[in-house]
């Protein structure tokens, strides 16, 4: 399997090497929440939920939210965060490339899971996201903008793997997804990069 595996991410959590972690929910999640993107009672998935900051914020908003992560430490952290705040949400130890929900959901919140996967897995992951969502459901995506110097020579470097907008258009093809017009909101990321906030509708 190309790229990082569950043991890689587990080691990052165990050694406290989590530079992507804001220590709080993403400001973009809060903006989307305040704009009504997560109606109470709607179903939301958070793949690669990490420490569970976004999961907890969505649970607090009354959303039926489930977080997925294949690193046991991430699942433990997320469960602990929910327990500390007395919140209810699902937290599953699962591989996002293998798992399927019992029924399609309304929304997927994608934050730094795609850029954690080697691009060899991107098509499979995009197919998963499409299958998880009901028709008309929305993918709230934060596409990591982190080009590495070696890319000019053809090297694939990550994580984070750069989610170039041209690659995103090919991956989330317009025959399967409806795209809003750019420009897209830039969200500053603790890795020293920024994300592009894009809301795609599953056709
Ligand atoms: C860079 S971290 C981001 C965590 C969180 N989304 C955040 O922004 O703080 C990537 C997370 O995705 C998880 N992950 C990566 N590949 C995965 C896979 N194939 N299945 C499930 N989780 C995965 C890792 O274990 C890790 O927790």
Which regions contain 5 or more consecutive residues with pLDDT less than 50? Answer: none
Summarize model confidence as the mean pLDDT: 97
Shape: globular
* CATH topological fold name of the domain at 27-33 and 98-202: Rossmann fold
User: What is the name of the CATH architecture of the domain at 27-33 and 98-202?
Assistant: 3-Layer(aba) Sandwich
Bound molecules: S-adenosylmethionine
Distance between the termini: 30 Å
Written overview of the protein:
The protein has 203 residues and is α/β, with parallel strands linked by helices. The chain has a domain at 27-33 and 98-202: Vaccinia Virus protein VP39 (Rossmann fold), CATH 3.40.50. It is 28% helix and 25% strand. It contains six helices and eight strands. The chain has helices at residues 6-14, 27-34, 53-60, 72-84, 122-132, 165-171; strands spanning 43-47, 64-69, 90-93, 105-111, 133-145, 177-178, 185-188, 194-202. Strands 1, 2, 3, 4, 5, 6, 7 and 8 form an eight-stranded mixed β-sheet that branches. β1, α3 and β2 (64-69) form a beta-alpha-beta unit. It is globular, with a radius of gyration of 16 Å. The model has no long low-confidence stretch (mean pLDDT 97). The structure holds S-adenosylmethionine. S-adenosylmethionine (SAM) binds next to β2.
